[in-house]
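Hey L., structure's done. Input below.
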Amino acid sequence: MVDVANTGPGPDDRRATLTDRQGHPIYDNQNQRTVGPRGPATLENYHFLEKISHFDRERIPERVVHARGTTAFGYFESYGSWGEEPIERYTRAKLFQGRGKRTDVAVRFSTVIGGRDSSECARDPRGFAVKFYTEDGNWDLVGNNLAVFFIRDAVKFPDVIHALKPDPVTFRQEPNRIFDFMSQTPECMHMLVNLFSPRGIPADYRHMQGFGVNTYKWVDAEGGTHLVKYHWMPKAGVRSMTEEDAAAIQATELGHATKDLYEAIERGDHPEWELLVQLMSDDEHPELDFDPLDDTKVWPEDQFPARPVGRMVLDRNVSDFFTENEQIAFGTGVLVDGLDFSDDKMLVGRTFSYSDTQRYRVGPNYLQLPVNHAKNADVRTNQRDGQMAHYVDRAGENPHVNYEPSITGGLREAQYPTHDEQGPVIEGRVTRKRIPRTNDYLQAGQRYLLMEQWERDDLVRNFGALLAQCDRPIQERMVWHFLLVEDDLGLRVGEALGITPADVARLEPLPGQELTDEDRKRLGSLGQNGSRDVTGLKMTHCVPNERARP
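Output:
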């Protein structure tokens, strides 16, 4: 290397001066301070120590899930209505009030299972997380590109992720591990039919749906509540890839979706989604064959229409990937007035887990970072100190008071908009039980039949190829499940594996598994039940899907 120490700038060099984090000018960024040119080095090399110690810490722990992702910014524009009805009938949330009202947003798209440098062509759920910077503080709507999830109780979340992650010994993602877990967890069937179809590999982020997955509540001005589901519908349409399509792209590019989103925004082709909302009265709905709080189910739209409430446009890319993407943090517990939690068991678990993860990854003061800070609302807290606190939150007029209550210049509690009692009366014993209306096969079968033929063909190929790598008992149990889902699916996957309905007819239901009357009827004539009737059935996650060929 040419020794450029102490040469100083040339006469026409108007570049800014390099400094350390203390603001000290750096006079030599090529050589450590040593005793003689050959060394040894001295201990007081402050510039070197600061530079190398920061380099050692440049990577915060990557997310356990959603490690690979990209962020863009834009705005949400309210329609001021739910379909044709005034939205204030259902929620007092300010960001939805008034046609044309705009709220700044940050959106992070991501894959779930792979690491930070994994392929965006992998078969994997995609994260679709939106941070609304509202006047009442931030609202995080954290969802996926698929409308349902693998499980319905958060206590199983570590298990399903461990099954999908690489083997702890071989460090390979093993089909035998994945389907070992899934074969013993019938509630996964609806998600599997989605994930292993082409929608498990979106063409890119711009042509991808988003779903809140969890059930939330809307609260009106009088404290009345409704259960709600959120759906993002891309204005550009839905496009997905087969395994073959994805392999062709992955041969030359690992980050095609990030590249596509970035380039589209840069050229002014701003992606747009419409936010659709389903509403349901806030009760248990015993008339339904599923529980509205079950994340493995969707709400059929012929019964619960999804109506538009606004649109979202992304028109700005990140200016720094690390500070605005790696450090952006979302949590399902981040709600604003007029929005609330339901009793969804997955939602309760995610609300603890997501924010706890950010405190571990980024630190206890992660909400002081600009990308996470509430931009359009006053932030005043009594929280102090902690790792990486770089300013003191605004508090009361007396700087000596960082507690509440106080009558000497501290902060006070806000006035609740209505009253603190809402929703139905809940009564029950403390217990550990699954929800009673599991019905694990019906919607999975309906979803299969509502797919386009090319999607069904790809789904069968994918199941056949992966299950061929599994142990025979796992193959048989999965074919047994698929025959209960839908004849055509079970017969075709079974044919690929050399397994007939007669081969699995001897299998008993899993220990503790609850079958519906229809399930028991289907079990009595495996493979000979005929197609389910889906006439008139409408589901948001079944909108037309265009095949994106490389």
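Residues 345-361 form the longest helix (17 residues). The radius of gyration is 27 Å.

-- N.
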